[in-house]
Amino acid sequence: MLNQIRKILEKPPLYAKSEAAFWNDEHISKQMLKAHLDPEFEGASRKLDFIEKSVTWISTLVPSSKHPLLLDVGCGPGIYAEKFSKGKYQVTGIDFSRRSIEYAKQSAQAQGLSISYFYENYLIMDLKQHFDFATMIYCDYGALSTVDRRIIMKKVYQHLKPGGKFLLDVFSMAKYNDFQEMRTWEICRNGGFWNENEYIILNGNYKYSDAVTLEQISIISNDKTTAYYLWNTYFTKETLIKEAEQSGFHVCKVFGNVAGDSYHKDNFTLAILLEK
User: Fold this and answer.
1) Rounded distance, CA 39 to CA 183, Å?
2) For residues 76 and 90, what is the distance between their CA atoms, to the nearest angstrom?
3) Is the pTM higher than 0.90?
4) Over the range 198-218, which residues count as b (16 or more CB within 10 Å of their CB) and which as e?
């Protein structure tokens, strides 16, 4: 046990993988879904008012009348997908959380929405279909390693028709500069988000070179210790454009967020619209 605790107290190497896929853990995935569906909580998903503003703007920017086939990459429980579907897009969603996909399918069926959902790792997706438009929303792109970002750019590019559009957002350097390195701990005697039973949580926030941060969450329970790594890469307008163009995309425009606000370097996010 001492060696396990020593390990989780050490700063891990860049882009180290989590020991467990928490998005498919029986307890944690239930808490994640609850967080996604809370309209006033900005953590797993953005708040509902922002989502509605975002969908309205996106529908004007890339209208369904011209770009009907939409791929929602990292769709979660289908919050955006459902709103896109109601806006006349033909929506396909892909996510690697089984619980989220199961919820999304049931919700779509209950509302009579014709949405295709796939439980699959989008880094290896091969949907045998080409789309007019793809979205990757809430800064999922920056949660990937450098190698995996190249992979998802290539995968989306391959799944788009010529002239197809790709909209994604990331955290900015202003957000990186605001990130504080720290270590905290807490005893959760009645369980909590990470475990239904008593546990101790050790949080380590670390900065790395090349504008990368890690939120390391280590859970110590009666029978084991588990570490989860939440990585983020932060971008300037120039570094995001460079990665997109290296993947073959043409840059249409950069925005402050996926609700269409103007870009400014002091914003915590930036969004980019790309074209194949």
Assistant:
1) 30
2) 17
3) yes
4) ebbbbebebeeeebbbbebbb
Q: Is residue 224 part of a domain?
A: yes
Q: Do 67 and 133 contact (CB within 8 A), yes or no? A: yes
Parallel, antiparallel or unpaired: strands 182-188 and 131-136: unpaired
Q: Does 32 fall in a domain?
A: no
Question: Can you give the pLDDT of all 276 residues of the chain as single tens digits?
Answer: 667 777 777 889 999 998 777 888 889 899 888 888 888 777 667 888 999 999 999 999 999 999 999 999 999 999 999 999 999 999 999 999 999 999 999 999 999 999 999 999 999 999 999 999 999 999 999 999 999 999 999 999 999 999 999 999 999 999 999 999 999 999 999 999 999 999 999 999 999 999 999 999 999 998 888 899 999 999 999 999 999 999 999 999 999 999 999 999 999 999 999 999
Question: Which sign, positive or negative, has the C-alpha torsion 136, 171, 19, 79?
Answer: negative
What is the tally of structural domains in the chain? 2
Question: Beta strand pairing status for 116-119 and 90-95?
Answer: parallel
Task: Identify the CA nearest to 233 among candidates 125, 147, 135, 121.
Answer: 147
Residues 34/99, Cβ–Cβ less than 8 Å: no
How is residue 211 written in tokens?
């504008």
- Count, residues in the chain: 276
The amino acid present at 34, given as its one-letter code, is K
Q: Decide: 31 and 24 in contact? Cβ < 8 Å.
A: no
CATH number at residue 68: 3.40.50.150
**Domain check: are 103 and 217 in the same one?**
no
- If phi > 0 it is left, if psi is from -120 to 50 it is alpha, else beta; for residue 164 that is beta
Helix, strand, coil shares of the chain, percent, nearest 5, are 35, 30, 35
